[in-house]
Write a structure and sequence with these properties.
The complex is a heterodimer of chains A (148) and B (707). Chain A has 148 residues and is an alpha+beta fold. Chain A is built from 6 helices and 5 strands. Chain A is globular and about 45 Å long. Chain B starts with a strand and ends in an 18-residue tail after the last helix. Chain B is built from 17 helices and 29 strands. Classes of the chains: A alpha+beta (148), B alpha+beta (707). The structure holds FE2/S2 (inorganic) cluster (2 copies).
């Protein structure tokens, strides 16, 4: 049994300790906003925040998550009011939408560190894959959010 | 406006929707510019959309076809809202459950359906007006509709749509209601916000992989690694699995969560039969077979105009080159999945699908149940790209569901998704051209050696030509004096399928590279040469010139950079793109900006058109730079993004889009952004480096991450 804290709430989960947090979130806790894209820490669709830092949850075990505080897309705001969510809608960023949970969490971590990141900073820090090609709009949305 | 679809806990199916009473419900068909038909009882399978005006003032539009990011929900609902004279913010939009749905693909979603959607909205409006006129005892001609209200022009009284809805339902359905003239559009042609987007910013949108049912089990698939191979016998259940289900060419491993299923599948000991000749499924063998077909045939004529032989006999100069493109994977961000609940009497299927009707057909075939016992719920798709037309994954999920008689979700782990795709076909294409003394092209000949998508799905038409394979080679608008286009079917057994923009993704590269080479060889500017070739086609000329202007074609290029241009017709739209690049380090390309002009007739939602161009260009750049699925020993050697590199943020260029509303019949937008970028890149690269890339990708063997 592992006790993990997700979006401010404790959960006790009875799984193998090696189980990636991704599958605990999705299959056990029903938090399906966190996505599977590759399972090998390349695509970043599974990004969550662990103590505020972006982490690829497909390669982060539930045992490692014990004692940390995890934020998923469901916890970014209770009502889509986060400045990035607002900017995402204003810039009409998502296409299929599948990568966007990971994108939003990666962007929020980026903005904690750099409140007003340049394009090259964004390019440097965000390695999430978007097959639909929303990158340009993501950069625009981050700038919009930074300007408040 | 909002979505009522597939957000958490509110998967709406057809039965629930139709069961809701108290208002006006119109069901209508998209076929043949159809008029609205009243939905009394269950509509037939021709019925592919619904408009409902509830007594509670709700306005709901349900659209057939799937949303995979192309903005189909908003595009079509815009047509209804326009005619219904309601404000966009008051409209709810969602998907129609199958079997009342159509294919999403071929970029037809919006272009074929808009008139039908508008007619449905107009019919509902006329019925509401008729109801108001009856209530007031006046002629309908003194009543008018706006903002969800009917106004009596004599008394200035108003009635809301909701208060009229029940009475309106009893009015006759007009067969040819008047449509709003385009000069009066309030909603069509404007960048309304897409209704599906808010749910895609907080994790609440339900994709195929996100379907959760009580007591559900989780299955993953493990295919025979070799194409065409079969399972010898049902393997033993590996530790951690609750079941194994044999699937002919694959095994499903079932467990209580996805991770357990994947772990158990790793330990699966399955034995396979490989088909005869499987070692010929090898990229080098396939390419040399293609080379032989190009030279020796057999080939069938796809298009012949004028005297090509005469043109070559009398030519002042000639040109001949071969162009090659590889197999490509779809690599949708969301891997294939489907969820089935079969209890022996009914069957529910939740699927990310571009073809809900085909899913219904598969369910009938596999379960033997009649259509009214089958409930197909299309979910959001995390990309479709042509792969989610197919029903191989659906059929598997159905078989697993029948074996288990419990809710079960099937997922293809990424390596299975990459290694058992239905790939964009490879192609080797030879282009020949004859020029007169002033550099005019008097003869144009192209022969493609490529596997047949249609031929793998049934017999080819009597001509023996696969129309998909020659898209982008035939019916070119260029004023070549004469032309001969031939198709040589390649026998390779690799499964092939529809990949975003299909044949145009192949032949756009071929044709537009060849034109550029001829321009360079004859000392003509590539834009000027194309202008000459398009002199009789003002619509294409306008697109060419718009892209050239936006991309500053005739202005000096910044030092160290070069520009390339290409123009491709596909799916009724015309797209031209200018790529501006540099080569900061040998073996790489930096794309600084792409300038894109598009004429899709009319942009229903300009913001969506822009997004689709940006997306198509990104997708096409990934393919051009790195995309390739090498075949070896009967298998695809791609495993994951680790050896199937795609564009990331840092490589993503600024894309500027100019939209031309020519008023031509509506063209597609989902696919036509893709084809011009590969040749625009190759043309820029040739100018910059003097090196002509005739074989894609630019940089084979690219990797990502540390796997
Ligand atoms: S699923 Fe974790 S990085 Fe791709
Ligand atoms: S929006 Fe589709 S993958 Fe990013």
């Amino acid at each position: 049994m592992y006790r993990i804290n997700i979006n401010g709430q404790d959960h006790d989960v009875d799984v193998d300790g090696e189980t990636p947090l991704l599958w605990v979130l999705r299959d056990i806790l029903g938090l399906t906003g966190t996505k599977y894209g590759c399972g090998i820490k390349v695509c970043a669709a599974c990004t969550v925040l662990v103590n505020g830092e972006p982490e690829k949850s497909c390669g982060f075990s539930v045992a490692e998550a014990v004692g940390t505080s995890v934020t998923t897309i469901e916890g970014l705001s209770p009502d889509r009011s986060h400045v990035l969510q607002q900017a995402w809608i204003a810039e009409q960023v998502p296409q299929c939408g599948f990568c966007q949970s990971g994108m939003l969490l990666a962007a929020s971590a980026l903005m904690t560190e750099y409140p007003n990141p340049s394009d090259s900073r964004i390019n440097d820090k965000m390695d999430n894959i978007c097959v639909c090609g929303t990158y340009q709009r993501i950069r625009a949305a981050i700038h919009r959010a930074a300007e408040g | 406006m909002s979505t009522l679809e597939i957000t958490k806990g509110t998967v709406v199916n057809r039965r629930q929707f139709l069961a809701t009473t108290g208002g006006l419900l119109l069901a209508f068909s998209f076929e043949d510019n159809h008029h609205a038909a009243e939905a009394q009882g269950l509509p037939g399978t021709q019925v592919t959309g619904f408009v409902r005006i509830g007594a509670d003032e709700s306005i709901t539009v349900l659209v057939g076809g799937g949303e995979m990011g192309q903005g189909i929900y908003s595009g079509l609902a815009q047509g209804v809202a326009e005619e219904l004279m309601v404000d966009w913010e008051t409209v709810q939009v969602g998907p129609v459950a199958a079997g009342l749905s159509w294919l999403s693909g071929g970029s037809t979603g919006i272009r074929r359906r808009l008139t039908s959607m508008r007619t449905a909205g107009a019919a509902a409006r006329e019925m509401l007006i008729a109801a108001a006129a009856e209530q007031w005892g006046v002629l309908p001609s003194v009543c008018s509709a706006a903002h969800g209200m009917v106004t009596n022009s004599i008394t200035s009284e108003t009635l809301s749509y909701g208060s009229l809805a029940v009475r309106a339902a009893a009015m006759p359905v007009p067969s040819a209601p008047p449509l709003v003239p385009s000069s009066a559009f309030r909603i069509i042609g404007t960048s309304v916000a897409r209704p599906d987007l808010p749910s895609k910013t907080d994790g609440s949108a339900i994709f195929g992989l996100d379907v959760m049912l009580p007591d559900m089990l989780f299955a993953v698939v493990k295919h025979c690694p070799v194409f065409g191979g079969t399972l010898r016998s049902t393997p033993p259940r590996p530790p951690g699995a609750t079941h194994v289900v044999p699937l002919g060419n694959a095994v499903a491993v079932v467990a209580t969560n996805t991770w357990q299923a994947m772990e158990a599948a790793r330990k699966l000991e399955a034995r396979w039969n490989f088909p005869a000749g499987y070692l010929n499924i090898d990229s080098a063998v396939i390419r040399s077979q293609a080379q032989n077909l190009i030279v020796n045939g057999p080939a069938v004529v796809a298009e012949s105009r004028g005297d090509v032989a005469g043109a070559f006999a009398g030519a002042a100069s000639t040109f001949q080159r071969n162009y090659y493109v590889p197999y490509l994977a779809h690599c949708c961000m969301e891997v294939l999945s489907a969820t089935v609940h079969y209890d022996g009497e009914t069957c529910d299927i939740y699927a990310p699908t571009q073809a809900p009707n085909a899913v219904l057909g598969a369910a009938k075939a596999v379960t033997g149940l009649p259509a009214d016992k089958i409930n197909v719920v299309p979910t959001f798709m995390g990309g479709g790209l042509g792969r989610k037309f197919e029903v191989d994954y659906i059929t598997q999920a159905l078989k697993i569901g029948m074996a288990l008689r419990k809710p079960v979700k099937l997922m293809w782990p990424r390596p299975e998704d990459m290694q058992h795709d239905q790939y964009r076909p490879m192609a080797l294409v030879r282009v020949r051209a004859a020029m007169d003394a002033s550099g005019n092209i008097t003869g144009w000949a192209a022969r493609t050696a490529t596997p047949s998508i249609l031929g793998q799905r049934g017999p080819l038409p009597p001509s023996g030509v696969d129309s998909q394979a020659v898209e982008g080679l035939v019916n070119l608008s260029y004023g070549f004096g004469s032309r001969l286009i031939e198709f040589a079917r390649h026998p390779a057994l690799v499964p092939v399928g529809f990949w975003r923009s299909v044949g145009a993704s192949i032949n756009g590269f071929v044709t537009e590279s060849a034109i550029d080479e001829i321009a360079l060889a004859t000392g003509a500017d590539p834009v000027v040469l194309r202008r000459r070739l398009l002199a009789a086609d003002p619509r294409s000329l306008a697109v060419l010139n718009a892209a050239a202007e936006l991309g500053e074609w005739f202005s000096p290029v910044p030092p160290g950079r070069a520009r390339g241009i290409a123009l491709v017709w596909s799916f009724g739209s015309i797209v031209a793109e200018v790529a501006e690049i540099s080569v900061p380090v040998a073996g790489t390309i930096k794309v600084h900006r792409v300038s894109c002009a598009v004429d899709c007739g009319m942009a229903i939602n300009p913001n969506s058109v822009e997004a689709q161009m940006q997306g198509g260009i990104t997708h096409g750049l990934s393919a051009a730079l790195w995309g390739e699925v090498p075949m070896k020993a009967g298998r695809a050697t791609t495993r994951n993004f680790s050896n199937y590199r795609v564009l990331q943020m840092r490589e993503s260029p600024q894309v500027d889009v100019r939209i031309i509303n020519s008023g031509a019949p509506l063209g597609g937008i989902g696919e036509p952004g893709v084809p011009p970028i590969a040749p625009a890149l190759a043309n820029a690269y040739a100018r910059l480096t003097g090196r002509r890339v005739r074989s894609l990708p630019f940089f084979p063997g690219a990797t990502m991450g540390d796997d």
